[in-house]
Amino acid sequence: MRLVMMGTGTFAEPTFQALLASSHPVVGLVTQPDRAVGQERGSTRQTGQGMKHLAESHGVHVFQPESINTPEGIAGLQSLQPDLLVVAAYGQILSREVLAVPPLGGINVHASLLPKYRGAAPIAWAIYHGEKQSGVTIIRMSVSLDAGDMVAQQALDIEPEETAGELEGRLAPLGAQMATDTIERLAAGPVTGMTQDKTLVSRAPKLKKEDGLIDWSRPAPQVCNQVRAMQPWPTAYTFLQRPGQKPVRLIVNRALPVEGAGGVPGQPVTEEPARLLVAAGGNRVVEVLELQPAGKKRMPATEFLRGHRLRDEDRFGAELS
Question: Exposed, middle or buried by CB within 10 Å (0-12, 13-18, 19+), for 246?
């Protein structure tokens, strides 16, 4: 079976490596065009070894169209004569014409328990919404986003303090194993999938920088989920507003909900000056454990507090115009 891999970033790399180690020839890699540093988004910012480097080191043809759905993109794919497309975090929706190129169509390695979290950032949004489980679903590719029949699915528990990047690191090899298992099933004969329940569909859109801005009026557990979900990109952030001073932008790297009465959301809790405690919604408190002021290194909150003694009139929140 002639395989073409389509993917970008660290979630796709284990699947690509598994295909390269399989008995089926990998005749091409379709991946996103090279980007300047800072232009990539989401999981594509985690480049790992690099899909292109992996392909070149194994003598696999690399194809990097701006859009695979153009006549030129389709012609390039046809020239590889694939039997099956294997897709993981590619970043483009495939047209009907693209999916018609290989006789067996395509399978997609998707990092969620479909039909929940269809879209570009399923891992981050699962953590953001406080899910206790995530997983990988292998689906047959269709022209609708992540809507194809499910041919395999496996769940993993999300650890209490796990970030999106850490969870991706556990899901990626699981997806690789599931993809190779599915390919062997396809090689042996027809594989029947299960239709997704449309009533259970939820969305996981591509992350934006603004998704990292902390709204301290949300309950403390939700704020902490956001901090975990936004790592490694775009990161959760807030601004320290101090009367008469320029706001300080802070990336929040680690935070936990703690017991205790809060106050006005965004107000520092100054009764314990050695801890960075911030009032959140529901009269609860978030303890910031690690942060990064703009232009400086990551640091424990205790180190930050040595240079920034907080007062009751200070506030954490959006940057004021």
Answer: exposed
Reply yes or no on whether the pLDDT at 225 is more than 80. Answer: yes
Question: What sign for the dihedral angle of Cα 7, 12, 17, 21?
Answer: negative
What pLDDT was estimated at residue 283? 87
- For residue 39, pLDDT over 60 is answered with no
Would you say the C-alpha torsion 305, 311, 312, 316 has a positive or negative sign? Answer: negative
Dihedral class, residue 81 (left if φ above 0, else alpha if ψ from -120 to 50, else beta)? left
Residues 85 and 3: their CA atoms lie apart, in Å, by 6
Q: Are strands 236-241 and 248-258 parallel, antiparallel or unpaired?
A: antiparallel
CA-based end-to-end distance of the chain: 59
Which phi and psi angles does 83 have, rounded to 5°?
-90, -30
Please state, rounded to an integer, the average pLDDT across all residues of the chain: 94
Q: Which pLDDT band, with edges at 50, 70 and 90, does 42 fall under? A: very low
> CB-based burial of residue 36 (10 Å sphere; 0-12 exposed, 13-18 middle, 19+ buried)?
exposed
Phi-psi sector, 295: left (phi>0), alpha (psi -120 to 50), beta: left
Whether the Cβ atoms of residue 242 and residue 314 lie closer than 8 Å to each other: yes
Mean pLDDT, range 262-276, rounded to an integer: 92
Looking only at the bridges linking them, the beta strands covering 150-157 and 299-300 are unpaired
Instruction: Return the H-helix or E-strand segment holding 171.
Output: helix 164-188
**What span, in angstroms and rounded, lies between the C-alpha atoms of 139 and 178?**
11
| Spatial distance between the Cα atoms of 277 and 288, rounded to a whole number of angstroms | 6
Transcribe 52-104 into DSSP letters. HHHHHHTT--EE--S-TTSHHHHHHHHHH--SEEEEES--SPPPHHHHTSSTT
Give the pairing type, strands 248-258 and 276-280: unpaired
